[in-house]
Write a structure and sequence with these properties.
Chain lengths: 716, 76, 173
């Protein structure tokens, strides 16, 4: 189908009659903002979809101004099309009657159709029916593109799915999967009823049915959780990507993030090494003994004084005893009647060593065998050994001075702790060292914190070098860390839900198999066989339908990417990916831009535009293949976010697609700064097209006075 | 080739028929008319359904169900 | 050979009931280690730790203040011989050795007629009683010091170094 001519009479800025004689292929209409470009688009849109409402708003002010009160004129948009060799004219119009200055009433709203056959004979036909026949509304919907904001006709979940259903064979298969399910359900019910009749299995069967119902419900529940978690993940990743996309240098950001993480880990490590459990260390490290030395000294002195006293007393006692009892206990007398040392000091081992070496090792004098010194030591040793024995053998015989010996143990205590004194002296130093260590670690941490602050500021700066406003940016920054945390949690949720679903699935499978087993054994075997066949048939139907759907999507995807690459040649491309997702009770199709398997969540406007234009061209191409007919496409300013290069690419591309295109753009127009006159840039001569027009307002005009507004059409 | 034949053929390409029902690719019919005369129950059953839904005179649910079950009753 | 130390450590020393609050706020009966101790906001994991601390504090500061006869005494039912045993706690070290130190200090500071003890004229139990009395007196002194510090500055002990500092700052006698 080709539009041969569009005529706009007295519609808004189009005063009187304005004609566009269009050609096949690419028609470019140039126009500055506000000079009639978009109104052209709106006129065509009104022709296709306009209703009998607020018509007085559509009247050309200039024309109204010229009309006498009481007179009327027609506002009209008409289109001449050619299809299968036949010409048709569709006109939508209404009558405007001037009632007062600047006011009119409207009437006679109509849509007319004229059909002209090859012989040139014209017949009047129903305008609406003619329009729908020539340019079916489903195709119209995807052929008119108004501005970049509205290019995203795929926002709604089902839009794309509906489109696919419209064009692909998949729509024929809907009823099969429906019927397949219907037949299978009936067959399964028949089997169940038959099984139930077998009383033996009734209880078990009922329980299994109950279990299965419960599991199905659980599964549905978790599916919902999983879906919403996945949506949240996508949302968060989108937000994060948005934040990161505004970063002019994404690599630097990544490096910074890693550095920040390293510093934080180091700080955490150092903090862990600081030990400030001082109170506990009083005990565990014995620091509480820091001032103990003097007390030990007191103790040692007391004990040794007592020991001496004891020996004194004992000595006196023994002397007395010795006189009375004779030589029972041979005591070696000391020079000067000095108080002898306790029996066990020096110890037996040391005594034996000294005797063996024939030296008194305390004063370093010889004690050769037979000498006084030697005999003295020998007697001592003997006395000690005898004392060890005597105690046990003769408890009652001897009257002892001292019944008990506490001194021995006290002595030992004194000696053993004497050794430890050197450790006590070190305590203050140890404490000081620990304080210093902790202080050093704290200083280190402080330095690291300063560094951390710097890095974070740096990161904020990078995030701040972005193209979004300060307000939004501060939101983004504020949320950045929270989103990262959320993402981690949601990802964990996703894993959990997926695992749970898997286990539910396997439980379900087991239960169903159990149920089947019962069925197989009890129900009528014919019913079983029937049910099994119908189960398979349903599977076949569903699988085939999905396959058809996927085949179409595959085609759509390939075509879209071909167009996409062409528009974006020499620049980032990525891949357009269509995914079919089976939601709870409907199928949706999602479109994503991916680069190396990573989803690109928030592409910039230019990318989005080229992505959608590619998809729409792909759809158009597919529609042509399926319907075996071409339909025109009308674009209003699709390239405003494109740079010069991309615009040139785009123009070349759409020049080469087969169907008719009408393209409204404002590029290639130049306003002279001094004279304010408009002219067409030289570059436009190189732009390939089949025909070009220029709509501009008649000069001079007053932008505040609609009566001066008159768009003129210049064919170039 | 009528659409219903295309639809039938697209169903018959499903792997279940080859794997589970052990049918040869060559044995598969290419029209609904042919399939309605098949001696393989699953093929005929599918053909019945396609005929019921996509022929020039589609049938109601209960009729379709009856057709299929009666046929299977006889064939199995 | 007799061992006065062994005998002494089977006892359970007491403290004045006026200090009950200190024990409930600063330490945890039956013990609280690690996270639990932090959660409960205690400085000492066990009652005996506080008791030991107060003893040394009183000892180093020479604050020998016997519990007045009229005051009621109480204890936390934990024999000295178990004090410092941390075998069930992996995060703490065993400090049962401090028992010996306490005994040493007590013996040094208590007037016991050792000769009479060894002759048998002084009953071992009585000797141990004397030791315990000294212990309770020094501990009482230490607890009073802690109480006074808290009255002076209720936030004093919030620093991790406070208890350590009190010991380190002791004017050596």
């Amino acid at each position: 189908m080709i539009i041969r001519k569009i005529q706009i009479d007295n519609y808004l800025c189009y005063y009187d009659i304005n004609t566009f004689e269009l050609s096949e292929g690419l028609n470019i209409i140039l126009g500055e903002n506000g000079e009639g470009k978009t109104k052209f688009f709106e006129a065509v849109d009104w022709l296709f979809n306009g209703e009998n409402r607020e018509l007085d708003m559509l009247v050309s002010a200039k024309k109204l101004n010229e009309t006498e009160i009481g007179d009327s004129f027609r506002v009209r948009v008409s289109m001449t099309v050619e299809q299968y060799g036949e010409k048709s004219i569709i006109t939508k119009s209404f009558l405007a009657k001037k009632e007062k200055a600047n006011e009119c009433s409207t009437s006679s709203f109509m849509i007319e159709g004229i059909s002209e056959n090859s012989a040139g004979e014209r017949t009047q036909v129903d305008g609406q029916a003619l329009l729908d026949r020539i340019f079916p509304f489903q195709i119209r919907k995807y052929s008119m593109f108004k501005g970049e904001a509205e290019l995203n006709i795929f926002e709604s979940d089902s839009a794309l799915a509906n489109l696919i259903n419209l064009f692909s064979e998949a729509k024929h298969y809907d009823k099969y999967s429906e019927k397949g399910a219907f037949l299978r359900e009936k067959a399964e019910k028949a089997v169940e009823d038959s099984s139930k009749l077998d009383k033996k299995n009734e209880a078990l069967y009922k329980k299994l049915e109950g279990d299965i119902i419960y599991l199905e419900r659980e599964k549905a529940k978790y599916l919902v959780h999983l879906n919403s978690t996945e949506e949240e993940i996508r949302k968060i990743e989108g937000n994060l990507q948005l934040a990161e996309s505004h970063v002019s240098n994404a690599d630097a950001l990544e490096t910074l993030n890693k550095r920040i993480k390293d510093i934080e880990e180091r700080i955490s490590y150092l903090a862990g090494r600081i030990d400030e459990n001082y109170t506990t260390s009083l005990f565990d490290e014995n620091w509480i003994l820091v001032n103990f030395e003097s007390f030990h000294k007191e103790f040692a002195e007391k004990v040794s004084a007592h020991s001496k006293t004891k020996r004194e007393l004992q000595s006196a006692f023994d002397k007395q005893k010795g006189i009375i009892e004779g030589e029972k206990k041979a005591k070696a007398e000391l020079l000067n009647n000095a108080i002898p040392l306790p029996n066990n000091i020096p110890s037996k081992a040391i005594m034996e060593e000294m005797l063996n070496d024939e030296i008194c090792k305390v004063c370093n004098r010889e004690a050769k065998k037979g000498s006084d010194a030697y005999e003295f030591m020998m007697k001592r040793l003997k006395t000690y050994l005898e004392s060890q024995v005597t105690e046990e053998n003769e408890p009652d015989k001897n009257e002892t001075l001292f019944k008990y010996d506490y001194t021995n143990r006290l002595d030992n205590l004194s000696i053993s702790h004497e050794d430890n004194l050197k450790n006590l002296r070190l305590i203050r130093t140890k404490i000081k060292e620990l304080f210093e260590f902790n202080d050093d670690r704290k200083k280190d941490i402080e330095e690291l914190n300063e560094q951390l602050e710097k890095e974070k500021t740096e990161r904020e700066k990078i995030l701040g070098n972005s193209s979004i406003g300060a307000e939004k940016l501060s939101d983004v920054l504020k949320n950045y860390n929270a989103w990262q945390r959320d993402l981690k949690n949601r990802n964990q949720d996703q894993v959990d839900y997926t695992t749970k679903l898997k286990s539910l699935e396997s439980e379900l499978k087991a239960k169903k198999e159990e149920k089947d087993k019962i069925d197989t054994s009890s129900a009528n075997s014919f019913l079983i066989k029937t049910r099994n066949i119908l189960r398979d048939i349903e599977t076949i139907f569903i699988d085939t339908k999905e396959r058809k759907f996927d085949e179409f999507i595959e085609k759509l995807q390939t075509k879209s990417n071909n167009f996409f690459k062409t528009i974006n040649i020499d620049a980032f491309t990525g891949t357009i990916v269509f995914t079919r997702r089976n939601k709870v009770n409907r199928t949706i199709v999602e479109v994503e831009l991916q680069e190396d398997d990573r989803i690109f969540y928030k592409p910039n406007q230019s990318l989005l535009t080229s992505m959608h234009i590619s998809i729409l061209f792909a759809i158009s191409e597919l529609a042509s293949e399926i319907k075996e007919e071409n339909f025109p496409m009308i674009f209003d300013a699709p390239t405003s976010s494109f740079g010069e290069n991309k615009t040139a690419q785009f123009l070349n591309l759409i020049f080469e697609t087969e169907n008719q295109k009408i393209l409204l753009i404002k590029d290639f127009l130049h306003t002279d700064k001094a004279t304010k006159t408009l002219s067409i840039k030289k570059e436009f001569e190189n732009v390939r097209r089949d025909k070009a027009f220029w709509v501009k307002l008649e000069r001079p005009f007053d932008p505040n006075n609609l009566k001066t507004i008159n768009s003129q059409v210049i064919t170039l | 080739m009528a659409r219903k034949d295309d639809i039938l053929k697209s169903f018959l390409t499903h792997e279940l028929l080859v794997n589970k029902y052990e049918l040869n690719k060559e044995e598969l019919p290419s029209t609904v008319r042919e399939a309605l005369n098949s001696d393989k129950p699953i093929i005929k059953a599918i053909a019945l359904i396609v005929e019921g839904l996509d022929s020039t005179s589609p049938v109601t649910d209960s009729v379709l169900r009856n057709q299929v079950t009666q046929f299977l009753n006889e064939a199995l | 050979m007799k061992n006065l130390f062994e005998k002494w450590k089977t006892r359970i020393p007491k403290y004045s009931e006026t200090h009950k609050d200190l024990f409930t706020s600063l330490s945890q009966k039956f013990g609280a280690e690690g996270e639990k101790k932090i959660n409960l906001g205690k400085h000492f994991s066990t009652n005996y730790e506080l008791y030991t601390y107060a003893f040394f504090l009183g000892l180093y500061n020479n604050e020998f203040i016997p519990i007045p006869d009229g005051e009621k005494k109480t204890d936390f039912s934990h024999h000295i011989q178990h004090w410092g045993s941390k075998t069930t706690v992996s995060t703490r070290k065993d400090f049962t050795n401090l028992q010996e130190n306490m005994f040493i200090a007590l013996l040094a500071k208590t007037d016991i007629d050792l000769v009479a003890l060894e002759k048998g004229t002084l009953d071992e139990d009585d000797a141990v009683k004397l030791l315990i009395k000294t212990m309770e007196s020094y501990t009482n002194g230490g607890l009073i010091l802690i109480k006074e510090k808290l009255e002076e500055n209720p936030n004093y002990f919030l620093q991790p170094t406070s208890f350590l500092n009190m010991i380190l700052e002791t004017v050596k006698v």
